[in-house]
Structure formats: C-alpha cells, structure tokens
Amino acid sequence: MAYHAKTKRARSGHKVAYLTFDDGPRPITRKILRILAAHRAKATFFMLEPNIRRYPQTVKKMIREGHAVGLHGVSHKEGKFYASKFSVVREMNQARQTLRRKTGKDTVLIRTPYGSLPHLKPSYLKALQSAGYQMWDWNVDSLDWKYRNRYPLVLIRQNVDRLSRLKVRPVILMHDLKETAAILPEILRLLKKRGYEFKRLSPSLTPVQFGKV
Predict the structure, then answer these.
(1) Which of 22, 23, 137, 141 is catalytic?
(2) How many CB atoms lie within 10 A of CB 12?
(3) I want to staple 188 with a disulfide (CB 3.0 to 4.6 A). Which of 39, 130, 160, 198 is the partner?
C-alpha cells in the first residue's frame, strides 16, 4: 500500500512503535509470539474469523501474554467484504462474536482487508463507527506479503526513520508469515537500537487512517 497517514506526534524522548500482524492466527503465529516474548515486545493482531475458530488456543495465548487482539473480518474478499455498509459491519460482528465465544475476550479494534483506501466508502466507515468499532490503517507497510525475503526489513527501516524525523509514531503492517517470523528478531533489534519500545494499540489512541493527518 502506498497510502500513509500521521499519528499523534510523539512526546520528546518517548519513542513508541506499534507492531501489527494481519490475517492470522496461523501455525507460525506461535513462533511470532515466542520472538515477541523474548524481546519483551507487545503487538496487535488483526485476525480473520475462520482462523480464530481454527486456532483459539493461539488467540488465548496472545491475550495471556498481553497483546492486543483486533478483527480483520471473515472473507478477506474485496467483492464480498465491501459489497455494502451492511456487509462490512456483518463480517466484523461475526468475527467479534467468534472471538467472544472462543476466548471470552471482546475488542472494538478493526482493520479492513487491504486497508481502508480505496474500498471503504465514508458511509461504510460511519456504519462501522456507529457499531462501536475503531478502524486502524497503518503508516509503515513492510510489504512482507509481496517480498518474502529480507527486503521488508529495508522498507521498515527507511519508513520508520522517515517518520522519526517527523516525530510520528510508526504503526507497522506485517502478516503472520514464516518469512516475516524469520526476520522479526532483526526488525525488533533494529527498532530497539533506534530507541523504540513496543506497545499495543488501544481504543484510547487516535487511530491511523488513510487520508487523515
């Protein structure tokens, strides 16, 4: 994704990065959790409903270890998810119900498939907000789904450094992939070397949304 938006400016001397993982949970998610634990890093997982149903114990592990859980819908199909304002709310509601049923945990954090631009119409966003959801995009795209090698590390470094100059906190998009897990320790070391700590997203924050500054 080429779209970027600004977060709130970070307080001087207080550098925070928000790691986010989409499309899970998957079998590789447990390795990602082990790596995060080893680095004492918190993250946010935007999950698909079928995967929540398939790997509920992994979701429970996320919650126990202090990560934030969010929703990513059900189908991850552009034509189906974005068919109407009713379909976007329906998919998030289904994912939310499954999360509650499988783990007892509730969340209002969501990320729509492929990000909000260009498919999430203003009326769709309004419907989601009326249903109580907080929609998050990102401002650093690792492109790990496309470049399943070390190039996402380069992209993260370049974009985090750019945002640092602007005093903007990075919200980094990654996915539950084995290739991402392979370079995650290097990503964490890189960011820690630059003075970042890792926190989870929360409804108390102002969300990054494409097209908003």
Answers:
(1) 22
(2) 7
(3) 39
pLDDT tens profile 119-167: 999 999 999 999 999 999 999 999 999 999 999 999 999 999 999 999 9
How big is the CA angle at 49 (ends 47 and 52), to the nearest 5 degrees? 70
Both tokens of residue 37?
Answer: 């634990």
pLDDT tens track for 45-77: 999 999 999 999 999 999 999 999 999 999 999
The CA–CA distances, whole Å, from 90 to 27, 30, 74, 106 equal 27, 29, 9, 16
Q: Which of 23, 72, 175, 176 is catalytic?
A: 175
22 is catalytic: yes
State the pTM of this model: 0.93
DSSP state of 206: P
What would the two tokens of residue 38 be? 């080893």
> If you search the block for the tokens 């980094």, which residue do you land on?
172
